[in-house]
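Handout, section B. The chain below has 431 residues.
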Amino acid sequence: MQLSTYLKIYPCQDQPGMNIVYSTVRSSVVLLPDDLLEAARRGTLPDEERGTLASLGILTPDREGEREQMLKIFDIPRPDTPFSAIVLLNLDCNLACPYCYEASFRGKEYMSGETAALLVETIRRERIEKGQPVKLTFYGGEPLLSPDLIRAIAAPLKEGAQKLGVAFSFSLVTNGTLLNRASAEELAALGLSGAKITIDGPAELHNKSRPYLSGNGSYEAIMRNVIDIFDIVPLQLGGNFTQGNYRDFPRMLDDLLARGIDPARVGAMLFAPVVPKAGERAVTDFNTDCACSYEPWLIEAGIFLREETLKRGFPAPKPKLSVCMVELENSLVINIDGSYYKCPAFIAYPELRIGSLTEGIADYMKSHSMDIWKRDECLECAYLPICFGGCRQLTLLRNGKINEVDCRREYYDTVLERVIRQDLEYQRTKP
């Protein structure tokens, strides 16, 4: 047995002679004394310790075999892998966020009833009838401006899935102004399993960055809805910050607590920087899940907000095995006209269209530079399992095409140890 390639090892600052060993494959953390770590390096560990460390991903039978597993990790989906699609219902919105990434092409454009019916027929035939679970994410614009479309898609898919014993659910990426208790209860009956809602800091900041079209602030309406529905629908909350305002964001967390929001009922708080617009090319809200930046202030802002989140008992995102959705065969974006893309940000790039509901999915290996991370430099990097080439969108913005990996080594060199130490600290202080 050998130490895995995909480990980071940090000396314990408060325990001389001890080491934090972190597996980027399993997200497991082990405290090892110097002698056991050295024995692991030499391959002389006792059987019991060797078995334990192997089960946690710290040890591997051989590194060459581990490398081959990484090369094939996304090639053969498990039979129970769900089909996951982001479905754009419209390009309309009831807010007027000044940083809106879709402003250049947003308007009164909606998916037609005919396209929605074709979507249902296609998913039922190609996924549900073949026994594949289905998870949709309704997106926009503001998806709740299209309640009839949500019903028209979710109701027949849920019914068809139930008849065949196949799992079906959907979530929302919504500004939260229209997701009140009545709508949440109705949608939960149709399969609503979660909602992502953006709150850009305390009231005075949020109302400037996410006002209604009238100019009035939306903070109170969103907060009322969050309070009314968090016991019905699992919520992921977060916000978009700037260099000048991120230190005020903890007051939003305090407001949530003061209003009776139980941190245990909320998903990981996801804060992300406002990303500059790239000319007429759109950058969608989904960049908050995957985009990354290495500017010193952004790294410090991320660590600060994560600390303040954990301090108040809210969960924070953890580094884990993840990959750009472009790599995943069973992940797709369906635009309002029924066209297919591999990332919501790519909708602004017609050349990255990969098919449609009527045409099926075309070969996108070359256009999307698939497997671009399958090279020695990446395969030998300890960060590969939490990176896999980074965000294709950022490469596209920098270069105008996907022609290189978005290497995250510098970022993780700076951030990962601090994140792991944060988690260890707050695990120790939990009652």
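Note. The longest strand covers residues 168-174. Compare this with the example in section A.
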